[in-house]
Amino acid sequence: MTPNDAPPSHPSPRLRLWIGYWLGLFVIMHVPMDAQGPPTVIPVDKIAHFVLYFILVWLGGRYLLAKGGASMFTVIAWALVYAAYAALDEWLQPFVQRTMSLGDWMSDVAGIVAATIIIAVVRHRTATVSEPAEAAQ
Question: pTM for this structure?
């Protein structure tokens, strides 16, 4: 079989999940909302922003780790992409009758940083475990 005869490769399930989640997140964040009620003691909105972006970064990081393309530079570069996307997401909020908020963006970035740190630790541990096996060969 020649390379031209090879069946088309399909995106991995991890990649599809990551991209699908990101698209879903975009939709959720751009659905117009009714006026919000009085502030609550628990900042549910900020927690939701943190969790939603944490999951986005976690899914992307798991895909990169599985693919083997998770250098520290790549992990940090993706964190910057996510932070820029979160800023764009907040900037677009007024166009769908939602409120742009620095606090929401800071919650997004906190989730991005937390997940990025975990991805970096997992990456480091995985690299450290595989290095002795490669050195023995």
Answer: 0.79
